[in-house]
Amino acid sequence: MTLVAILSGAGLSTDSGIPDYRGPNGLWRRDPEAEKLVTYSYYMADPQIRKRAWLMRRDSPTWRAQPNAAHGAVAELERRSGIAVRVITQNVDGLHQLAGMPERKVLELHGTSRSVVCTQCHARSAMAEALERVAAGEEDPLCRVCGGILKSATVMFGQRLDPTVLAEAMSIAKASEVFIAVGTSLQVQPAASLAGIAAEHGARLLIVNAEPTPYDALADELIREPIGTALPQLLRRLG
Q: Where, in this chain's numbering, is Zn(2+) bound (predicted)?
């Protein structure tokens, strides 16, 4: 059975109304201060940063977002016989799963914004529940188990990726026959290195992204068309 690995980045979700980070209209370019809200050291040290971060989470477009045609095409490919599909995503929006990808076939490298975790006792709970507390007037809700600082269950700047998740992603990259990097600048390590690992192990590397990436020279095919139409066409061709 052919193994197709898909590494997805923020560009995959822009058609769903979730802005990317580093593109021409990206979040970090529009508001460099916003980066502090997702930087672990700032977040842990400053209650004001945490209050702003909770407001950012409350107002996130993720809660209104629906999977787009690209998410749907990935889920559709997974349902076809003869093709094993694994998604390795840098996104934290959960849209691959909402589109129908089985949870066990989606590796969330940077965690998920749909849960919160205590930085002290590591208890996890639903983001929706924490946001209800914010709506009720708690500016910086604390863990109900131990009173520790809560954060979204995402990997912030300054935090390591989960080594188990990363090891599994590397195994998938090495085993894949086709590796598609879509909507990612391939600038954030170690996620970006997966494209190189796949190519080194003989995978056909396809890059679908509006901007050039550091791995373009290794690619068997570069696609600069809009992801919402280009990825479904590419996956139909693969199927």
A: 118, 121, 143, 146
**Of the residues 71, 110, 122, 201, which is catalytic?**
110
Are 217 and 118 in the same domain? no
Q: Domain check: are 232 and 138 in the same one?
A: no
Q: What is the CATH number of the domain that holds 89?
A: 3.40.50.1220
Query: Are 206 and 133 in a shared domain?
Result: no
39: burial class by Cβ within 10 Å (0-12, 13-18, 19+)?
middle
pLDDT digits (tens, 9 = 90+) for 39-89: 999 999 999 999 999 999 999 999 999 999 999 999 999 998 789 999 999
pLDDT tens digits for range 168-186: 999 999 999 999 999 999 9
Q: 143 among the known binding-site residues? A: yes
166 vs 13: CA distance, rounded Å: 22
Domain that includes residue 94, residue range: 1-18+67-110+160-239
- Whether 201 sits among the annotated catalytic residues: the reply is no
* Residue 211 to residue 186: CA distance in whole angstroms: 10
